[in-house]
UniProtKB/TrEMBL annotation:
GO terms for biological process: SCF-dependent proteasomal ubiquitin-dependent protein catabolic process. GO terms for cellular component: SCF ubiquitin ligase complex. It comes from Eudyptes chrysocome. Residues 15-62 form the F-box domain. Gene3D superfamilies: 1.20.1280.50, Ribonuclease Inhibitor. The lineage of its organism: Eukaryota, Metazoa, Chordata, Craniata, Vertebrata. This is F-box/LRR-repeat protein 18.
């Protein structure tokens, strides 16, 4: 025993004391700790940490946007202790904080950047706060029903006149504070206005006409507008654009409008585009598809050193893409982000007589890869990009040259080996050996779960395996079926029937999923409509190898009548210690005790969303899961259960856990219920946009659009 004690004391004496590290190393370590913990807890432990925790490098920028444990009292104490030291404050998406919390921001007299998107702010509170922030240059706010610009004081308007960057999310037809921002250089507008009020009245964008002030765009460098579905959003954005069409800012270098569906071009918008073609050189461009399709606009627009292009859902052909955008192979090393999602003909020389399922012209993609060799974000989803069996290189082989890629979105049919296209898809009928003799049991083949065993089964020779091996630093990957559509679209009833997968995609399954496990630094993964998933064995490999995985979205894998990958998914989840967001969309999904027991291993999980037509859940298992996983603050389940079962479970979760989790947001509701859209409108935009609604997010916006 004495030897053991002496050995322990010797080891203890040779140990390293954290406080012996240099200040530089300690500051780097402390930079990973939430600011609220630093100021309210860590700095009270010893004198050295008390000094370091108040270092300017740690208090200059305070990020509360995903600090789900922060409450009003913590914010109040934080502002009281270090308010004067804060120059940048991000409270985006803090929907759970009462509006009175904003009053404490007035202590931050030196604020230069402030993000309040998703926070409850009235006109009067905004006026009082901004009146004290004379150094403010960057602001993000929401404009909700009831906003009244006439309540803004002269001191508030003086502050707004000095603001250079404004991000404004509109939930009601209004100019918001834009007319007061006379020095704007960057304007970001998010239109989330519903066509009907809660009372059922039709809304109109013409409500804005009576406002006396108009926007000032003379210094504008960046204009960005993202529209949610609905005609009112289109009406309102046209009023914002009307001023631009009169006089195009000379320094405009980024012009981006993201609009779903049909957004027709008008005389005013045509004049605006003609003026842009004559007077400006752009670095970033995104336009509604109707503004590009069939027009010669791209031929006349001039570009400087472009870093972002989005031609999402346009009928732009590969020939036009090369000639008008890449300028016949012009060096475009400056381009870092390219969105060609839904651009079905972008890899074909022309689109006039071409079917969407025809083979691509690999020379167009090769030209693109050579010219844009520094691409970091590329989206090719929502299209049939079929490589030719005999001509040119495979799409995966060409993309493997883009060594700088950080995020990539591909259609499922684009990753299959050309040789496999002539084979019949794997089904139960053609798995039976064509021999005579004793009877053979028909069933699902057993697939090995070990990565080494799978490697022996042809996957290392596949083009997709090689692609994954060459993109070692990829952080985000989406592989989505070209005909996939979520069962829960925006502002509409749930979709009851989905389109069948592309024929070329029929062979994509477990081995391709296993290939993804080579991505050691993968942080976000989306897999949707992979028809040949038989066991989901590849998911286990991903769980073991991709230890940085934080976001996982799986939808419609394998056969639709049964969740064939459930066992593999549960094994995978046991290894996902860093997973924070999980979204599952699968018919007949059973969210039972075994599933939630496996999910409880994900100790970092914060948000869970399950969408399942005819799916079932066990209320006791959900409650036990919520009790075990203390970090979970969002639980959304849209299943096949009755309204009574859903409401009772939702109320039980809120009643049991809301007090300890201020940010808790729970929505449990029948997927096919007629009131689903009314329920969805109350979901905080942060959750709705980031996880609840399915969409491709690669190159959705320019990189670093907002801090």
């Amino acid at each position: 025993p004495q030897e053991i004690v002496s050995g322990e004391s010797e080891e203890e004496s040779n140990g390293v004391n954290l406080m012996e590290f240099s200040d530089e190393i300690l500051l780097h370590i402390l930079s990973y700790v939430p600011c609220t913990d630093l100021v309210l807890n860590v700095r009270r432990t010893c004198r050295k940490l008390a000094t370091l925790c108040l270092d300017k490098s740690l208090t200059h920028t305070v990020l509360l946007q995903k600090d789900y444990k922060v409450n009003k009292d913590k914010v109040k104490q934080l502002m009281r202790d270090i308010g004067k030291e804060i120059y940048q404050l991000n409270m985006a998406g803090c929907y759970w904080l009462p509006s009175s919390t904003i009053d404490h921001v007035t202590r931050c007299k030196n604020l230069v950047k402030l993000n309040l998107s998703g926070c409850h702010v009235t006109s009067l509170r905004l006026s009082k706060m901004l009146s004290t922030l004379q150094h403010l240059r960057s602001l993000a706010i929401d404009v909700n029903p009831g906003f009244d610009a006439s309540q803004l004081s002269s001191e508030c308007k003086a502050t707004l006149s000095r603001v250079l960057e404004l991000k404004q999310t509109l939930y009601t037809p209004s100019y918001g504070v834009v007319p007061c921002c006379t020095s704007l250089e960057k304007l970001l507008l998010y239109f989330e206005i519903l066509d009907r009020s809660r009372e059922g009245f039709m809304l109109s964008g013409q409500l804005m006409v009576g406002e006396s002030n108009v926007p000032h765009y003379q210094n504008l460098r960046v204009f960005y507008a993202r529209l949610a579905p609905g005609y009112v959003n289109q009406e309102v954005v046209r009023l914002y654009l009307a001023v631009l069409s009169d006089r195009t800012p000379e320094n405009l270098h980024a012009f981006l409008i993201s609009a779903p569906g049909s957004f027709a071009e008008t005389g005013a918008t045509k004049n605006l585009l003609d003026s842009m073609a004559r007077n400006v050189r752009l670095d970033a461009l995104q336009l509604p598809k109707a503004w590009i399709n069939g027009s010669g606009l791209l031929q006349h627009l001039k570009f400087n050193n472009p870093f972002y292009f989005s031609f999402s859902r346009c009928t732009l052909s590969g020939g036009h893409l090369i000639q008008r955008v890449i300028n016949g192979g012009k060096d475009l090393k400056s381009l870092t982000s390219l969105n060609l999602s839904g651009c079905v003909h972008c890899l074909a020389p022309e689109s006039l007589f071409r079917k969407a399922e025809d083979d691509i012209d690999s020379s167009i993609l090769e030209n693109l890869v050579v010219s844009c060799c520094n691409l970091r974000h590329l989206n090719l989803s929502a299209a049939h990009h079929h490589s030719s069996e005999s001509i040119g290189s495979h799409l995966c082989q060409l993309l493997s040259r883009l060594k700088h890629l950080l995020s990539l979105a591909l259609p499922v049919c684009s990753i299959t080996d050309v040789a496999a296209n002539v084979e019949k898809p794997h089904t139960a009928s053609n798995l039976v050996p064509q021999t005579f003799g004793r009877k053979v049991r028909i069933g699902i083949q057993t697939y090995p779960r070990n990565l080494a065993d799978q490697a022996n089964q042809k996957i290392e020779s596949s083009v997709f395996w090689s692609l994954m091996g060459s993109l070692r630093f990829l952080e985000t990957l989406e592989v989505i079926g070209s005909s996939f559509s979520s069962a829960m679209p925006r502002n509409e009833p749930a979709i009851r029937n989905s389109l069948p997968p592309c024929v070329r995609a029929q062979s994509v399954g477990d081995s391709e999923v296993a290939a993804i496990s080579q991505l050691t630094y993968l942080q976000s993964l989306t897999l949707a409509q992979l028809p040949n998933i038989l066991t989901g064995s590849g998911l286990i490999n991903i769980g073991l190898q991709c230890q940085h995985l934080r976001t996982l979205s799986l939808a419609n894998l394998g056969m639709m009548g049964k969740v064939v990958y459930m066992s593999a998914l549960m094994d995978m989840l046991k290894h996902c210690k860093c997973l924070r967001d999980l979204r599952l969309e699968q018919p007949y999904f059973c969210a039972g005790a075994q599933f939630f027991q496996a999910l409880s291993h994900c100790s970092s999980l914060q948000r869970l969303c399950i969408v399942s037509r005819s799916g079932t859940l066990q209320s006791d298992a959900v409650m036990s899961f919520m009790a075990n996983c203390l970090e979970v603050i969002m639980c959304h389940m849209f299943m096949g259960e009755s309204l009574t079962v859903c409401k009772n479970l939702q109320q039980s979760i809120v009643r049991s856990f809301q007090a300890d989790r201020p940010a808790l947001n729970v929505v449990i509701f029948p997927l096919l219920h007629e009131d689903l859209t009314e329920v969805i409108r109350d979901v905080p935009m942060r959750h709705l946009d980031e996880i609840t609604l399915f969409k491709s997010r690669v190159a959705e916006e320019p990189p670093n659009l907002w801090w």
